[in-house]
Write a structure and sequence with these properties.
The chain has twelve helices and ten strands. The chain has two domains: 198 residues, Rossmann fold (3-Layer(aba) Sandwich); 140 residues, N-(1-d-carboxylethyl)-l-norvaline Dehydrogenase, domain 2, CATH 1.10.1040. The chain is of the alpha/beta class and 345 residues long. The protein starts with a strand and ends with a helix. The structure holds NADP nicotinamide-adenine-dinucleotide phosphate. The site of NADP nicotinamide-adenine-dinucleotide phosphate (NAP) has 26 residues, from helix 1 and strand 8. Catalyzes the NADPH-dependent reduction of ketopantoate into pantoic acid. Keywords: NADP, Oxidoreductase.
Length: 345
Amino acid sequence: MTINVLIIGAGAVGAFYASRLALAPSTQVSVICRSNYAAVSQRGFSVKSPKYGSYTFTPHRTFANRQEAVDSGLLWDYILVSTKALPDVVDDSEILGGLVKEGRSAIVLVQNGLGVEEPYKKRFPGTTVLSGVTIVSAAQTEPGVIKHNRWTRISVGPYLPGAMDGAMATRSDGEKKAVEINRKFVELLKAGGVEDAEEYSHAKLQMVRWHKIAINASMNPSSVLSGGSTNNGMANDPELGLHLKGVMEEVLSTAPKVLGCELPKEFATPEQILRSTQRNTSGSKPSMALDWEQGRRMEIEVILGNPIRIAREKGIEMPRLQSLYALLRMMQENRENRRKEVGKL
Ligand SMILES: NC(=O)c1ccc[n+]([C@@H]2O[C@H](COP(=O)([O-])OP(=O)(O)OC[C@H]3O[C@@H](n4cnc5c(N)ncnc54)[C@H](OP(=O)(O)O)[C@@H]3O)[C@@H](O)[C@H]2O)c1
């Protein structure tokens, strides 16, 4: 039976993983495009990667919008969402209306941040949601052109809040099904050459999300607030390096209190993350800095706001994160207000 995958958010991450999934046996990958629709419908995606070489990926179907995908009559096994997570701007779970078929479709989220799964679980309570965290460096340099720079690590786990990890025999049928669908999705990624794809439990995947937040919540806002510093530049600056370490420690000491268990010993420590960033001279900036520089909205809520709120619900404050959040939110709001003023003239 053909496995049908639909990508919503066919930018850097979405198109890169789409191009790998399309190589799995009996798998057809289609995309819903937005600003890159004209380019992709004419020429497909051109992908350049140090690991996989240069190739063209032509989606099975390229849709200009959700309605076209609904009208195609195709039934989707996996709907992978890799838009920028901007819950303060738009609820992207809405786009899945009419596309999710209960009992057949699973939703796969490949996005940074915490709490990204909730809107999908709320809107589609009977549907399996898989939560994905990727460490990859990729960019869409022009419409339909994807530059993969490095790394291919993608960790995927079923989103089963409230369920205890444990022996399969103790799980409900819905949980067993979610674990099985998760396993199959990771197999598809591996079949597409993504050897670093890894299957996780719900609890461990949430630990991976918190650990990634330690990196994103320290580097991303600090780069924007320091005027567009590179990761390497920040890690090598004594004061800024100390600040990054402090933010990472705050996140990593809060995570076990929120999750109710220690983070695995194999996860990199703040010192290890800093040392590797000090050595990485690629000159790369966090995506949030690029979003800010290009006048786009930043993923502030899922990277800063949600961790703060989730911790606060447990009575824990994260003062370093809170300061970054407050400053960045106001910076963004001021820019939006300036734009509105200019629009009025
Ligand atoms: N890039 C990386 O190296 C990297 C690494 C790790 C994690 N991540 C995370 O992965 C997620 C995706 O990031 P990205 O870098 O791939 O972003 P991106 O290149 O900006 O791609 C997002 C894509 O989603 C599209 N989109 C947004 N709303 C849509 C809608 N309603 N309908 C159809 N398409 C829509 C955008 O279209 P438009 O162009 O029209 O806006 C864009 O093509 C983020 O959460 C990010 O933090 C990224």
